[in-house]
């Protein structure tokens, strides 16, 4: 993952998929900002929304599914109810069975990024729970390649 100061400079244009999330009163903690545990919930949600919409993932019946093996987050500013969060997603690395996502959280109407996280999944075969011997499915790979960032970001989907 990029150094902290580089992540803090991220903009929506650096990502290829954006999903809106209306914060809830229950997302706030006693300090009146979104609790840090909610960020992981949202990162998981944007990744799975993308996989379902663009990679033909069917959570209940696909022969493979992604298992999270690592996640971390850098926080830059808080967000709180009733703000609308914009969850921005890209793929930074694509392996045979693994994918490294970068997820940024923006507040609608605010240019600066609020947080940037890393989320790594390994695709496993459903019956064994082991990394997919043949690698991830072609549909999954093609969908993930659409949001893979190498050097130049392109437009979101």
UniProtKB/TrEMBL annotation:
Origin: domain of life: Eukaryota
Family: Belongs to the 4-hydroxybenzoyl-CoA thioesterase family.
Keywords from the named record: Hydrolase
Keyword Ligase annotated: no
One GO MF term attached to the UniProt entry: fatty acyl-CoA hydrolase activity
Protein name: Thioesterase superfamily protein
Entry's transmembrane regions: none
CDD domains membership: 4HBT (cd00586)
Pfam family, one: 4HBT_2
Coiled-coil boundaries: none
The species this protein was found in: Sodiomyces alkalinus (strain CBS 110278 / VKM F-3762 / F11)
């Amino acid at each position: 993952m990029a150094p902290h100061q580089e992540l803090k400079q991220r903009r929506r244009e650096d990502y290829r998929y954006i999903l809106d999330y209306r914060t809830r009163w229950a997302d706030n903690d006693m300090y009146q900002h979104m609790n840090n545990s909610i960020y992981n919930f949202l990162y998981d949600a944007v990744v799975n929304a993308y996989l379902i919409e663009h990679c033909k993932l069917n959570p209940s019946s696909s022969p493979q599914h992604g298992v999270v093996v690592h996640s971390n987050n850098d926080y830059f500013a808080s967000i709180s109810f009733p703000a609308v969060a914009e969850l921005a997603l890209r793929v930074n690395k694509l392996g045979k069975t693994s994918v490294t996502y970068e997820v940024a959280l923006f507040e609608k109407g605010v240019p600066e990024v609020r947080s940037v996280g890393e989320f790594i999944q390994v695709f496993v075969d459903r019956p064994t729970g082991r990394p997919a011997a043949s690698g991830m499915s072609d549909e999954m790979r093609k969908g993930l390649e659409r949001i893979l960032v190498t050097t130049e970001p392109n437009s979101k989907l």
